[in-house]
Amino acid sequence: MKAFLFPGQGAQYVGMAKDLYDQYPAVRSMFDRAEEILGFPLRKIAFEGPEDELKQTQYTQPAIFVHSLGMLRLLNERELKPEAVAGHSLGEYSALVCAGALNFEVALRLVKLRGRLMQYSGEQNPGTMAAIIGLPRETVEEICRTVSKEHLVQPANFNSPGQIVISGSVDGVHRAMALAKENKARAVMELV
After folding, report:
1. Which percentage of the chain shows pLDDT scores above 70?
2. Model's pTM, two decimal places?
3. Which terminus has fewer CB within 10 Å in the chain: N or C?
4. Which of 173, 179, 178 is nearest to 155 (CA)?
5. CB-based contacts of 79: which residues, under 8 Å, 6+ apart?
6. Where are the domains of the chain?
């Protein structure tokens, strides 16, 4: 069985898809069309940066989405088609396009709106996220309940057994990270 899994935010890097854009007309046309729809210089931001600009959610999400669908187009040209698709967070939009549930233009507009709204929300209420690896769900939930007596923090993504992302105020997430380390989490990483 062939399955395609599409990435979420955090997979971005300056220069992403530049080689594909230069080599493959299908990817080039996708990025060019995306830039027309988005109304901002996606190619410049994704290919040249600066990194601080690419890391802005309003740009990161469309860049990852278009990169993912560029890769999908190349796979489809080689007649590699999945029997199942899935996406991690933002990657769900790429999976929906791959499955035929949304078309590229509609999904890109949704991704643009999602990125802008998330960017705005983060500016209005600064927060952060962290991945906690190696603790049971119940332990992470209890840590969040304890910290939430003074700060905002809660589980946001149950990525897999033993890998949970928490989200909340900066102080809340930092306090929960410290408690996770005290509870012998295998790894605790702030997601920036």
Report:
1. 99
2. 0.83
3. N
4. 173
5. none
6. 3-123, 125-191
